[in-house]
Write a structure and sequence with these properties.
Layout lengths: L9 E2 L5 E6 L2 E6 L4 E7 H4 L1 E8 L5 E8 L10 E7 L6 E2 L9 E6 L5 E6 L8 E6 L5 E5 L10 E2 L5 E5 L3 E5 L5 E4 L10
Antiparallel strand pairs: 1-2, 2-3, 3-4, 5-6, 6-7, 7-8, 9-10, 10-11, 11-12, 13-14, 14-15, 15-16
Length: 191
């Protein structure tokens, strides 16, 4: 059901449905009715949905989206996008360069910021960053190059985020303190 090896599905708060991506775009699957609904069609917009995550209250979905490959310029650009939970009201939150390709994005607990990771030492956003939903301001939280095969994980209280780099890192979102977990195992907080 997922788009690639580093994509994940995300349960919605109703505990009966989840969002996922495929070649068509962004989908919601309802397990009670065993039905699927395409809520954002990549073929209509020209932006492929690579990974997605819902806000805590499920009123918005953030996704990493890549423009269709342009044969003339021989490039595609990946950015962070926001849509309503029904797939409407597309907003581009970042204006990144091809080198800045983010691997995953999730909401902070209050929904005011989006956490995203970049796995490219040539990018000014290499590591873990946030983008503010209103101002679209980007802030780098940790410059340890992200390993984008593991999802970002936010602590239940929203005070910490973990991500993988040359080990597992925990970032305190209140103090911006970065700690490396010595064992190097992937950290996934339960919800």
């Amino acid at each position: 059901m997922c788009r690639g090896s580093n994509d994940t599905t995300h349960w919605l708060s109703d505990s009966r449905s989840f969002i996922y991506t495929n070649n068509d775009g962004l989908n919601i699957f309802d397990i009670q009715s065993n039905s699927n609904k395409l809520i954002y069609d990549s073929n209509k917009t020209g932006i492929d949905v690579l990974s997605a995550s819902a806000s805590k209250n499920n009123n918005a979905i953030v996704f990493v989206g890549r423009t269709k490959y342009d044969k003339v310029s021989q490039s595609s650009v990946t950015n962070i996008y926001l849509v309503n939970s029904d797939g409407s009201n597309l907003k581009q939150l970042t204006n990144l360069k091809e080198v800045d390709e983010p691997g995953a994005a999730i909401f902070t607990l209050d929904g005011k910021d989006i956490l995203f990771e970049v796995n490219n030492s040539n990018s000014q956003y290499n590591g873990l960053s946030t983008v503010n939903v209103q101002s679209k301001t980007i802030k780098v939280l940790s410059a340890h190059q992200a390993e984008s095969y593991y999802p970002l994980s936010l602590s239940k209280d929203g005070k910490f985020v973990s991500y993988d780099a040359d080990g597992s890192y925990i970032v305190n979102l209140q103090t911006s303190e970065v700690s490396k977990f010595v064992n190097g195992q992937h950290i996934l907080w339960s919800k």
